[in-house]
Write a structure and sequence with these properties.
heterodimer; A: mainly beta; six-stranded mixed β-sheet; four-stranded antiparallel β-sheet; B: mainly beta
Chain lengths: ~110, ~120
Amino acid sequence: AQTVTQSQPEMSVQEAETVTLSCTYDTSESDYYLFWYKQPPSRQMILVIRQEAYKQQNATENRFSVNFQKAAKSFSLKISDSQLGDAAMYFCAYKRSGNTPLVFGKGTRLSVIA
Amino acid sequence: GAVVSQHPSWVICKSGTSVKIECRSLDFQATTMFWYRQFPKQSLMLMATSNEGSKATYEQGVEKDKFLINHASLTLSTLTVTSAHPEDSSFYICSAREGQGLKAFFGQGTRLTVV
């Protein structure tokens, strides 16, 4: 079974600074997808960024970028120029190919300090 | 973007009663629906997967007779918690996908409190 591990239950960052959230996963599949979701206090799940395993290039979305290390099965999220609105729970998620569900890590609570 | 509407957003019910949670896809056909449960300060745990017109597939440890899932149309899936007990109190989230698409769209979640 696939597992997703987020080893940082909580992180904090100063406003305008950069923070990196860690995620590792375990799978025997070669074709899969990785995601970072944000869950603010409203509890609405928001997709932050997605990475296809077959792509070597790291995904970026504005201030959000990932460091995808396939051999190491590592998928970290870097948030640059952190803003107060970035404060939330962040979940790393894995999905193998096909019509399959997302498997979530336990989450990292990010606090942004003004 | 695609919208999934989940209703109600919160509900309080008495122990022993049943509660129905609805999840509607507003602008796409939700061929597959996933139901998750999230305990306080914990991750989302998959309860079941349902494909339109088919019986739901439940994850190990999830009682199918207690958590009834119906996915009779391409725009509506329901989760009914039958004979609810306080330990069923949790946050329930639906997620819908169209076809083999990669994107999963989430509802706003339902906070269930059983007293």
